[in-house]
Design goal:
Elements: E1 6-13, H1 19-34, E2 39-45, E3 54-61, H2 64-71, H3 74-83, E4 92-97, H4 115-143, H5 150-176, H6 178-181
Antiparallel strand pairs: 1-3, 1-4, 2-3
Length: 183
């Protein structure tokens, strides 16, 4: 499990009127976190304007130990204390190894499905999404005047597939097949 990499999904519920303060705080903490040992990459999902106040930060590290070291570091704790006045709820996060974060279960705390079930569930979800996305995306790209380019088209298509899988498909699909997954 050590060499599979690890991800953390951090959610921050921001108080109304504190969005700019929080984003300035992000500008301070992100460069520091990028220098943490084992850091690979991160992604920030911002709230929908005038609708939600939740920021989601997804960070990947090379090992779960390096990820835990950063998340529990005194430096990160100081940053969190500084941002506390912006939070509606406290700093919340979940650490998962490999692709386990795709198979999060609220009802089965800490339990992760066996790898062959994860692989089969992921494959059965990716297949239809990867067929559907190009049918929708490529005509749109041509409509806005972008010329056909295999590499660019693949970049956009796979980016859409990954985004849909992580944020829409897998959270709902795993709820649908939860009994089988965790059996």
């Amino acid at each position: 499990m050590e060499n599979q990499g690890a991800s953390v999904v951090i959610t921050h519920h921001i108080l109304e009127g504190k969005k700019l303060d929080y984003e300035r705080w992000l500008d301070e903490i992100l460069p520091v976190s990028k220098h943490a040992q084992g850091f690979i990459d991160l992604q920030i999902v911002k709230p929908i304007p005038n609708l939600t106040f939740v920021y989601t930060v997804i960070m990947r590290f090379d090992t779960i130990d390096n990820l835990k070291e950063w998340m529990e570091s005194p430096e990160r704790k100081r940053f969190i204390e500084k941002a506390q006045p912006f939070f509606r709820k406290s700093d919340r996060y979940q650490i998962k190894s490999g692709l386990d974060f795709l198979f999060n279960s609220e009802s089965v705390t800490g339990k992760v499905p066996v790898r062959w079930k994860q692989a089969l569930a992921t494959w059965s979800a990716i297949y239809p999404v990867s067929l559907l996305v190009p049918v929708i995306i490529f005509p749109f790209l041509r409509l806005i005047g972008l010329p056909k380019n295999h590499f660019f088209d693949s970049l956009i298509s796979t980016g859409c597939v990954v985004f849909l899988m992580v944020y829409l498909v897998m959270p709902n699909y795993t709820k649908l097949i939860r009994k089988w997954l965790f059996k």
